[in-house]
From TrEMBL:
Residues 276-285 have a biased composition (Basic residues). Pfam families: Methyltransf_24. Residues 244-285 are annotated as: Disordered. InterPro entries: SAM-dependent_MTases_sf. It comes from Streptomyces crystallinus. This is Class I SAM-dependent methyltransferase. Residues 259-270 have a biased composition (Pro residues).
């Protein structure tokens, strides 16, 4: 994530029409971890913190099985809980609405996930402790928020569950790197693998997943990998610039003439932005 995207103009006919930041190498890794859980018979819920227009949520939703719950938590068009988060929202997600997320999601799935439209700080009151087999943390990229999201993920993850953190090493969001590697140093978060954009880890034993992943990677000539000792354990580095994405979820609008979404009305400024604008306009005392 590094810039504002313009609003999507039509119902998505293909997965590639959904705007977001979820690249082929990470699609392959999500698919690998989730298919492995299926093979292992590991059951549990799915959770995403930070959904935007649904790109990664739509993908994750394809791995949901009967009697499991998929929860997504996002502010969408609600006010952010503090000024730095509000500025982040204005800068990067100014035109985002829950309606746009839901329309995209329903183009690929019959039912919506459980949507928690709130700051991620509420998530431990909405999801059961120890219930989630896979958690994608991709909400605010500010240190204080990511730190809280990591604590929540640690509470909510099931034994042998996997946690993926977005943008853990990007130049524009040093707070994510600080929070994620801080958790490795202080909370027992165990790294398994990294791509250019995501960190995959667990609070359980990382070794079985790590060794199976190392057996699978040589079968993927489209991805380079290497292993480096980090914090006393082997970390798999994956470079997926040429990665070929796995089969994408299918849209119910595929092959149909694109249905334009109604012309957007000018978005209402977020409350905090409105507050700042008003402050700037009012005479100073
Ligand atoms: C990088 S985007 C998510 C991208 C999405 N996972 C994808 O793959 O396309 C980050 C999302 O986090 C949400 N967000 C930012 N701060 C948040 C907060 N404090 N609580 C909940 N959601 C937040 C934003 O509304 C935005 O939709």
């Amino acid at each position: 994530m590094s810039q504002t995207t313009s609003a999507q103009s039509a119902a998505p006919a293909r997965f590639s029409d959904v705007k977001g930041w979820f690249w082929p190498a990470d699609q392959l890794l999500f698919d690998w971890f989730l298919a492995r859980q299926e093979r292992q018979g590991l059951r549990g819920d799915l959770l995403e913190l930070g959904a935007y227009l649904g790109k990664s949520a739509i993908f994750l939703g394809s791995y949901l099985r009967e009697d499991e719950t998929f929860t997504v938590c996002d502010l969408f068009d609600s006010p952010a809980p503090d000024d730095p988060n509000s500025e982040e929202m204005d800068r990067s997600y100014a035109t985002l609405t829950r309606r746009a997320f839901e329309a995209n999601y329903l183009a690929f799935h019959d039912e919506l996930p459980v949507v928690v439209q709130a700051p991620t700080s509420v998530i431990t009151s909405r999801v059961d402790s120890g219930s989630c087999r896979f958690i994608h943390v991709d909400a605010s990229h500010l240190y204080e928020h990511v730190h809280g999201d990591i604590a929540a993920a640690r509470d909510l993850v099931a034994p042998d569950g996997i946690v993926a953190f977005d943008d853990f090493r990007a130049e524009h969001c040093p707070g994510v790197a600080a929070a994620v590697w801080g958790a490795v140093a202080t909370t027992g978060l165990r790294p398994i693998a990294i791509t250019a954009t995501k960190f995959y880890g667990t609070w359980s034993d990382p070794e079985p997943a790590r060794s199976e992943l190392l057996s699978w990677l040589p079968t993927r000539p489209d991805m380079w990998h290497g292993v480096e000792e980090v914090a006393g354990a082997p970390l798999i580095r994956i470079s997926g610039k040429k990665a070929v994405a796995p089969a994408a979820p299918r849209s119910r609008h595929e092959g149909l003439t694109p249905v334009p979404t109604p012309a957007p009305t000018a978005p209402k400024p977020r409350p905090a932005l409105a507050r700042r604008l008003a402050k700037g306009l009012l005479p100073r005392r």
